[in-house]
Amino acid sequence: MKREILITSDGSTTIHLPDWDEQYHSKHGAIQEAYHVFIKSGLDKILENNTNKVSILEIGFGTGLNAFITFLEGDKKNVKIDYVGMEAYPVLADEIEKLNYVSELKSAAYQAVFDAMHETSWEEKQTISEAFQLTKKKQFFADITDENAFNLIYFDAFGAKNQPELWTEEIFQKMYNALKADGILVTYSAKGSVRRAMQTVGFLIERLDGPPGKREMLRAIKR
Fold first, then answer.
1. Which of 159, 147, 149 is nearest to 187 (CA)?
2. Residues in CB range of 121: below 8 A, 6 or more apart
3. Which of 26, 76, 140, 202 is deepest in the core (most CB within 10 A)?
């Protein structure tokens, strides 16, 4: 499948798949979307409980943008983070080199962190910094078997238009099982079918204002 580097509306890059008319991040702003959906609506919400240690599962590690901004926020807020990124089809090294997240985030001091996130081996927990541990798993989402393991899930799979099998009750049951009590799942999607699938497996759903280019997004809480 053809893949292209695309400049999004906030100046940050993403990977575009023209055959699917799909990209790894919003064309309205990759960094803006990541901060709005995953940091503001996810990590910040978890941290309201005054915790200084968070376990996160990302569904779709992709370009590493979400992991990198989570590292930056954790460093800023003095939070210890255990981060697990699932990705069935890892992004290629030459594509990573063309992404401009470090410069757009004005984080040149952390270039080595972004590089390490992509260069460290898969399937083993890696210490990225004293406060940030990363485990990358090359795994299909349907094969997830974790139970009561995470405080927060970033659900950042490709859209249901192209991969409907990733947005089913079966998958969200796995997400529900993987979360600890009062754990949170956040996603950019606000489709009615997605919301209903989440509700069916037991999530309490909140509709929130979406990032630029989207009216709404969803936050799901395990009760």
1. 159
2. none
3. 26
Residue 127 belongs to domain spanning: 31-222
Q: Tokens 């702003």: give the residue.
A: 29
Chain Cα centroid distance, residue 67? 7
Answer yes or no: is 23 within a domain.
no
What sign does the CA torsion over 189, 190, 196, 201 have? positive
At 111-152, the pLDDT tens digits run: 999 999 999 999 999 999 999 999 999 999 999 999 999 999
Contacts of 5 (CB under 8 A, 6+ apart): 13, 14, 15, 16, 95, 98, 99
- Give the burial string for 164-194 (b: 16+ CB within 10 Å, else e): eebbbeebbbbbbbbbeeebbbbbbbeeeeb
Residue 50 predicted with pLDDT over 80: no
CATH number for the domain harbouring residue 57? 3.40.50.150
